[in-house]
Write a structure and sequence with these properties.
The relative contact order is 0.13. The protein is of the alpha+beta class. Helices cover about 25% and strands about 20% of the residues. The chain has a two-stranded parallel ribbon with strand order 1-2. It is elongated, with a radius of gyration of 21 Å. It has five helices and four strands, in the order αβαβααβαβ. The protein has two domains: about 70 residues, no CATH class; about 55 residues, no CATH class. The structure holds S-adenosylmethionine (SAM). S-adenosylmethionine binds next to helix 1.
């Protein structure tokens, strides 16, 4: 089996160590430029120089998959930056649909009950630790993770929407 290498650091610098035309495929989930949860790293889109480096290291004819927010203002800039860096943007995007901006943060049935002002019956308890409760006590984005254990109620859904 081939050796797997994990390089940890700023892609703007680390990509420089990679040879021209040596990468088969590139998959990335970069900052979207939407100030997600007010994170500093998400205030702007990646520098065009990063995309130029990605283009340089990829083998001719190979693909890059870049995740982006569907928000028009940042999506069109992302597409423009990629095109300006040399990428052929004539391929159809792969799209996925989801109910909220960040589904991990909310439970739709709880939102419906809350809006209707109904109490949910507590039917059990659960202990969660680490990333499962990152949004409550931690810091999304990989910088710090709160590893403490907390107890949460398990509730039944109260509202039947027929
Ligand atoms: C959209 S998030 C990726 C989230 C990840 N896919 C997940 O599900 O947890 C973008 C990530 O890129 C990192 N980042 C921002 N600028 C970077 C850079 N120049 N080099 C490497 N990573 C960077 C941020 O710290 C952040 O964790």
């Amino acid at each position: 089996m081939n050796e797997q290498i994990l390089i940890n650091g700023d892609s703007k610098n680390k990509l420089k160590d990679i040879q021209d035309g040596s990468v088969d495929y590139l998959l990335t989930d970069p900052p979207y430029g939407i100030s997600f949860m007010n994170k500093g790293w998400d205030k702007v889109l990646p520098d065009v120089e990063v995309w130029k480096e990605c283009f340089r290291v990829l083998k001719p004819g190979s693909f890059i998959s870049v995740m982006s927010s569907p928000r028009s203002d940042v999506l069109y800039r992302m597409i423009k930056d990629l095109e300006d860096s040399g990428f052929d943007m004539s391929f159809s995007p792969i799209l996925w649909t989801y109910h909220t901006g960040f589904p991990k943060a909310s439970d739709t049935s709880k939102m419906i009950d809350k809006r209707l002002g109904v109490d949910r019956e507590v039917i059990g308890k659960v202990e969660l630790k680490g990333t499962a409760q990152t949004l409550k006590g931690g810091n999304y984005g990989g910088e710090t993770y709160d590893n403490k254990t907390s107890e949460y109620n398990i509730t039944s859904s109260n509202t039947y929407i027929g």
